[in-house]
Amino acid sequence: MLTPPRFRLTENEGGSSLGKIVRKLLGNHLDGAIKAARSALERDQHPEGYWDYPLEADCTIPAEYILMMHFTDDIDRELELKIANYLRQHQNEEGGWPLYHGGSMDLSCTVKVYYALKIVGDDPEAPHMRRAREAILAHGGAAKSNVFTRITLALFGQVPWSGVPFIPVEIMLLPKWFPFHISKVSYWSRTVMVPLFILCSLKPVAANPRNVQVRELFITPPEEETHYFHPTNTISKFFHILDHIGRTFLEPLIPQFIRRRAIKKAENWFIERLNGEDGLGGIFPAMVNAHEALLLLGYDEDHPLVKTTKRALQKLLIVEEDSAYCQPCLSPMWDTGLSCLAIREAAYGESEIPESVSRGLDWLKDQQLSDEPGDWRDNNPNLAGGGWPFQFANDYYPDLDDTSMIAWAMSVTDHEKFADSIQRAADWVAGMQSRNGGFGAFDKDNTCYYLNHIPFADHGALLDPPTEDVTARCVALLGLTRDEKYKPVLDRAIQYLKEMQQEEGSWFGRWGTNYIYGTWSVLSALEVAGYDMQEAWIRKAVVWLKSIQHIDGGWGESNDSYYEDKRNQPHPSTPYQTAWAMLGLMAAGQSDSEAVKKAAAYLINTQQEDGFWHDESFTAPGFPKVFYLKYHGYNKFFPLWALAQYRRRSQQS
């Protein structure tokens, strides 16, 4: 329950002079709020210097963890019962499971959760199971679920292999000039796909020791179903025809020596990238596929590689007394960079850099990559390394967003101390610019858009093209260097941002929800990079942000906004989105505006006794319309950053 409002801005106060308002806020409330939030954040810092908050996804991933244990017949009974408790707690009123808190039921997620609960031992006639089954059938049955769910069902013998795309392991032998090559898809796609090629080519059947079936989830018997694929346009229909030809005519002709060679190449590829106990790609789906592929290839459960892949998966678990869930990945680099920025801002006016920030940035400095091999080198063979990953370790896949944010934190804290790290990061980022002027998250020019129409890509997230939010972060870093050699890169990036601005003035948020996140990202970047914040295109964004502020002083935006017809759907204010809007407006010179004052009041009034803010909503997409995340740190460091920056700007005015 929220604490009572600590103060209110009345109509007259909202329009009074800055000095009067600031004195009221600073004297009675603002300092206390910042102090409490900073202390709470610093208490959460690990002894090694980093922050690492839970990263929660929808129920698909914990359900998949249960299914993985039954695929391999390596079952932790206590753990699966705790995960089952977590799954039951998240069933919605429709009877299914959504992709984010408050969202509508998602068919594919619900099918996996139903199977996981049944395999754990839930009675199919129990009320929650009956409701789930009825919801699945009302949405067309399990045959209508997405490709990844149908692959899981095929591995458990619940649908025929004709119900999933044809993805033979021989893909590994295709030359790079071929229309499809693993270097042409995103890092997350290739790390998921390569071990999956092995699974889908060898077509194993899960151990399934309890022999649990889910035929009751199909309207038409799965072996009789003829509508597993739903091509929507000419390109997807063409690829569907190729898929059918490949499955029906080509696969039977593949010589066994070619298959063995392809399997070995896939095996070597993913083993080379296993990434120790941080896992293949640092992401759960790839890690599961790698673990299962190793076992399928004959590696004993006591083999060091199998032990490593199992341990990597276990490190993703959040286990509590009565429930448990599996994280999709870990986020220490991102959490640490943002926590350092927030605390550094809260320490404005202090003579010394906070010890917590120094320890955090020193830890980050030691994690910077240099000359490690990385898939990003496919398009940049001569570019020196200098990035950071998102996870504790992910040497093959540093990302531009983390790299830019971390180097930003270093630059505004102690540029001289971290000069070498900042320079290497900036050079690497500049070299990763795509042809259109923007920046993707992990690769350069990962823009073979036709691949989003292949049958495997029904999720529409096969690629890693440039996005506005990542581009903004890169602009911030390169602009902070004040180095003239980056001017051509910056000019092209700014032109990209101008071209991508929405008609009403906002920017799309690829990695945070959504237009509020994208708009904050761009406005904040432009300011720190030294751009004129009075230009007309920037003022247009300011007007838009102000126009969507809620009466309580906050901002809120649902993940429904990734659907065009739901874009303007109302959503309650959230602390993290209010902080983003505040930071964006202040960057644009609006610190003295009524909108920012009311936003500060909202954050102060909604702060909890532990010093943090709490909100159930999911803060970001993993992939818009497909997969969403709740960064548990966002309600901790972003409101602190916003309030601290508000205090600093007020004192400077």
Find the count of extended strands (DSSP E, 2+ residues): 5
What would you report as the Rg, rounded to the nearest angstrom? Answer: 25 Å
Query: Which strand order do you get reading across the main beta sheet?
Result: 1-5-4
List the secondary-structure elements in sequence, H or E.
Answer: HHEHHHHHHHHHHEEHHHHHHHHHHEEH
Give an overview in words:
The chain is mostly helical and 653 residues long. It has 2 domains: 11-55 and 329-652, Glycosyltransferase; 56-326, Alpha/alpha barrel (Glycosyltransferase), CATH 1.50.10. The chain has 23 helices and 5 strands. Strands 1-5-4 form a 3-stranded antiparallel sheet, with no helix packed on it. Strands 2-3 form a two-stranded antiparallel sheet. A hairpin with a 3-residue loop joins strand 4 and strand 5 (627-631). Helix 8 (187-202) runs antiparallel to helix 10 (256-272), helix 17 runs antiparallel to helix 18 (487-500) and helix 22 (594-606) crosses helix 23.
Which characteristics define this entry?
653 residues; mainly alpha; Glycosyltransferase; 2 domains; three-stranded antiparallel beta sheet; two-stranded antiparallel sheet; 49% helix; 3% strand; globular; disordered N terminus
Short summary:
The chain is mainly α and 653 residues long.
How are the SSEs ordered, and which strands pair?
Elements: H1 11-14, H2 18-43, E1 55-57, H3 60-72, H4 77-89, H5 107-120, H6 127-138, H7 147-155, H8 187-202, H9 234-250, H10 256-272, H11 284-296, H12 304-314, E2 317-319, E3 324-326, H13 332-346, H14 355-367, H15 400-414, H16 419-431, H17 468-480, H18 487-500, H19 515-528, H20 536-547, H21 575-587, H22 594-606, E4 620-623, E5 627-631, H23 634-652
Antiparallel strand pairs: 1-5, 2-3, 4-5
Helix pairs in contact: 2-13, 2-22, 2-23, 3-4, 3-5, 3-11, 4-5, 5-6, 8-10, 8-11, 11-12, 13-14, 13-15, 13-23, 15-16, 15-17, 17-18, 17-19, 19-21, 21-22, 21-23, 22-23
